[in-house]
Design a protein that fits this description.
- This protein has 155 residues and is an alpha+beta fold.
- It has 2 domains: 53 residues; 82 residues, Winged helix-like DNA-binding domain superfamily/Winged helix DNA-binding domain (Arc Repressor Mutant, subunit A).
- The protein has 5 helices and 5 strands.
- The longest helix has 14 residues.
- The radius of gyration is 15 Å and the shape is globular.
- It starts with a strand and ends with a helix.
Length: 155
């Protein structure tokens, strides 16, 4: 496994891979121990793509992913990857679209356990009423990411 911490506009992000084959994690880690950081080509490519995203130069990612989760979580995370840049959908929309219309809370739970933030865009999921709710890194960061995408969506 390789791991790297790097500074972003939302704080220190940590990216991890499974030996350079696929990304397994991308998360906010402002208090993380950087002593074990070890780069790979994939880690450096991920860092570059994420920073391009923050600079409005990237709307899609070209990184192989290997998140670890239950079948249901993987189904939700695969759905999240299909939500277009600068667009949102609700937890209930996802539940209906994956054939589990009563599983809104389970979708929210899977969203909260997403191990690869930004690239698997869980920040694009909002409440049915349109309210910006729930985000493991904090609602303010979710608002920031949505505003960032809105700012750069036409470029």
């Amino acid at each position: 496994m390789h791991r790297l911490h790097f500074t972003s506009p939302i704080g220190t992000l940590c990216v991890e891979d499974n030996g350079g084959k696929a990304l397994t994690a991308l998360y906010l880690d402002n208090d993380g121990d950087t002593s074990g950081d070890c780069e790979s080509e994939l880690i450096l490519r991920t860092k570059a793509e994420v920073l391009e995203y923050f600079n409005g130069k990237r709307q899609e990612f070209d990184i192989p992913l290997d998140p670890s989760g239950t079948d249901f979580q993987l189904k939700v995370w695969n759905y999240l990857r299909k939500i277009p840049y600068a667009q949102t959908c609700s937890y209930s929309d996802i539940a209906k679209d994956i054939g589990r219309p009563k599983a809104c809370r389970a979708v929210g739970g899977a969203n909260g356990k997403n191990p690869i933030m930004i690239i698997i865009p869980c920040h694009r999921v909002i409440g049915k009423s349109g309210d910006i709710v729930g985000f493991s890194a904090g609602v303010e960061i979710k608002k920031y990411l949505l505003a960032l995408e809105e700012k750069y969506k036409s470029e």
